[in-house]
Amino acid sequence: MSIPSMPESIPGLEKDFNLLRETVSGGTSTRWMDHKKVKFYTNAFIFHGNKKRGFGLHKYNGFGGKVELGETSLEAAARELEEEAGIKSALKHIGILFFLSDGEDCAFHIDIYRGDGFAGVITESEEMRPEWFSTSADNSPDTGEAPSIPYEQLWETDPYWFPYLLSNTPFRGRADFRMDSDEGKLLPCKWWFGVLGGSAEVAD
Length: 204
What we know:
By secondary structure, this protein is mainly beta.
């Protein structure tokens, strides 16, 4: 029985790939989906005590959106956070998600940011209805704490990288989604996630 070897690289994650340590991979596809162009987005998650915030249409998500022409990824993340929730936070780049899906003509590069604490009054916007979720493993409805993170309402591959977000561990990952005719929805067909090894600093 042989142990699978680390791939030489993952399309979309070439930068810093030699610093990554694979943690999980899988899927039914033997090769990655092709893409001709990439769109850049951001996603920010705010922590306060043992809670985080974030809400998306049909699936829970962080605050974020498209990186506009002339702004950096960090500037875009800060702008989206203020537009969608009315708050500011000292955001830290914690991860990269690169994904493709059926029906899209491009790949999506999403910079993930973590903010510990915030300033301002949290306000619901047309795009987002912020909610608190507990990051404690032992919380229960009887304790009066916020509900646990609803992993069943996240994207199917989010549970692979959420532990890194929670533990403040830099990570990188890719996931390809194809339309499942039986389920009638997009489902992951191939994925790979890894964490940055050692104490190497990686530029945003």
